[in-house]
Design brief:
The structure is a homodimer. The first copy, chain A, is α/β, with parallel strands linked by helices. Chain A has 14 helices and seven strands.
């Protein structure tokens, strides 16, 4: 990790003062003030990224400071795939979709000869890739819609409890990043309300985010399908998932959905790809102290290393903007002592 | 107020037991257990509605009971217009729209000859009514869109601080129902998270709901306009309100939006019109104890009296369903000691 510009909050008067004492002193000082003797981020190596987090949290939670923010306005938004858990070799939601295609295949004999389903059933990843975004959308609609919301939740709960990641041979929820779990807990303890704002679909995440991240369903924002209300033949109401995208919560859709769902601009936002760039811009444009963070996947031994050339989680334009504007770029290899809790 | 069927929770075993002791005894018992010596609902007359609320809250918050619900699942949803504040002689948001038309008229000379704007500028309410839903939509789009979200918020903040209700000559926010304010506070104190789920547009409510109801912006759900993200010529990002409806949060749209925004089914829902019927059905269809309430406008002296024939806040089919299923119908005239705090 090369030298980085000072984090954005350091341009503010009260923070600048601590910098005069040098990084080490201010670091110890901030840590001691913020958390007493216990380090809330034990899986983070000491360094600029970790220090920037402490400095920011102390700045907005210090009631005597000029940049104090009342607890009810402490909103933090996190991307999910690649930011809170891994996203390789394919988005985990896509792995769910492929498993659903296999499970549903007996009911759809026509899939044996129709792409992209044929490719999934034959394990032909090349043909699957060739089906492109249109093929992906077909798979999503065929596996994520056409049932009630309650039925879909049951499918997710069952899959997330049993499916295993192909490389790590563990449940997908074991592949959450321990340093980010610690960051979420630290923010919760510091009065922040944390939200997920993900390109993944919202009802794929809600059944397990509270258990895994401590983030309740009502604080999960994501891509959604059109849902309609109807009364069943027994008079019982149901919400039915229609095979139509309602809103894509990615790129410029993220600040749009943050406004729609939360109605407040985040103080802190964390992402890992170009799909998070506008969320970070929107956060940065707020008044007072703001924190913009990017998880940079740099560890091909413990996790994966990818950025500008990747098809999954491409980080290119957002990386340039982060470097140009002094946003915090977390180098997974050097900034994280531990990536997964099972290491 | 005629006799009503027992509230829904009374069909449950532990509540039935209290009913054997008679209404008065159970009422005193529940109150004493729930709140010690202080009545959390002083503006409610003693009666079935008030008792039903106490019984329900005690049922779901009693950790030794079989119908206990953990705090994180205690979701309550409230309609706004006619449920938390008045909605006569016209929806208050519509009064805002009319004031905006008058304020914007100098910039739109063509409005002098074009309906429905002409009718607004001439105070011709008959012509305005004749323009129908299409006219209303035109007024909404012309006054609620075409600016950034920040600019719209400023307009609402300014209007709500200065506009006066024509009958009461007071700020519109004085026309909130004191008994409902007490109910919201009682629910908050009992661990509930309260949401507004309104047919009104969400960004008209968010600037003032926290101050007036104690409900923060992120717990306000409503009708929305399409919003787009763009960078200004100065590179500063903005969210621009487009003249297009995104979603109408009314009728069957309410349970759809409850699922989309909250992701949990409410334990308690309160409305006042047919536009709330599906939200109440969706709530009623949940397992365990649920509370469905309707505010019935029956007091033409202190507020207004209207239901089946009203153009604003019509209560017809939902009233029949409420009576048939034992939902709690609050009779404003007899159930509420006080309607507005200024009385």
């Amino acid at each position: 990790m090369g030298p980085r510009p000072a984090p954005r909050v350091s341009s503010l008067p009260r923070v600048s003062a601590t910098i005069l004492f040098g990084i080490s002193l201010s670091f110890l000082l901030v840590r001691a003030v913020a958390w007493g003797q216990t380090d809330p981020l034990p899986s983070w190596n000491d360094g600029t990224a970790k220090q920037s987090i402490f400095t920011f949290v102390q700045t907005v939670t210090d009631p005597t400071g000029s940049l104090f923010v009342p607890p009810d306005q402490r909103i933090a938004t996190f991307d999910n795939d690649g930011t809170l858990w891994s996203e390789q070799p394919i988005y985990f939601q896509f792995a769910f979709a492929l498993d659903r295609v296999r499970a549903l295949a007996p009911r759809h004999p026509e899939w044996k000869t129709r792409q992209p389903f044929k490719a999934v059933l034959e394990g032909d990843m090349k043909a699957l890739a060739a089906s492109g975004e249109k093929g992906l959308a077909q798979l999503l609609l065929a596996t994520h819609t056409g049932m009630t919301t309650d039925e879909f939740t049951k499918l997710v709960v069952s899959w997330i409890a049993t499916a295993q990641h192909p490389r790590f041979k563990r449940p997908y929820t074991d592949l959450v990043f321990q340093p980010m779990i610690e960051l979420l807990a630290y923010l919760h303890a510091s009065g922040f309300k944390t939200y997920i704002v993900s390109g993944g679909t919202v009802e794929f995440m809600r059944p397990w985010t509270e258990r895994v991240y401590g983030i309740p369903p009502e604080q999960v924002v994501g891509t959604s399908f059109v849902t309609t209300y109807k009364l069943g033949s027994d008079g019982k109401p149901m919400l039915f998932r229609q095979p139509k995208i309602d809103f894509i919560d990615d790129g410029p859709g993220k600040p749009v959905n943050i406004q729609k769902f939360i109605g407040r601009r985040p103080l802190l936002a964390f992402g890992n790809s170009d799909g998070d760039q506008q969320m970070l811009q929107w956060t940065a444009a707020g008044e007072g102290a703001r924190f913009m963070g990017i998880v940079h996947h740099t560890d091909d031994v413990r996790e994966w290393a990818y950025d500008r050339q990747s098809h999954v989680g491409r980080l290119d334009r957002a990386l340039d903007e982060a470097k140009g504007r002094g946003w915090v770029v977390v180098d997974m290899k050097s900034d994280w002592k531990k990536i997964f809790s099972f290491e």
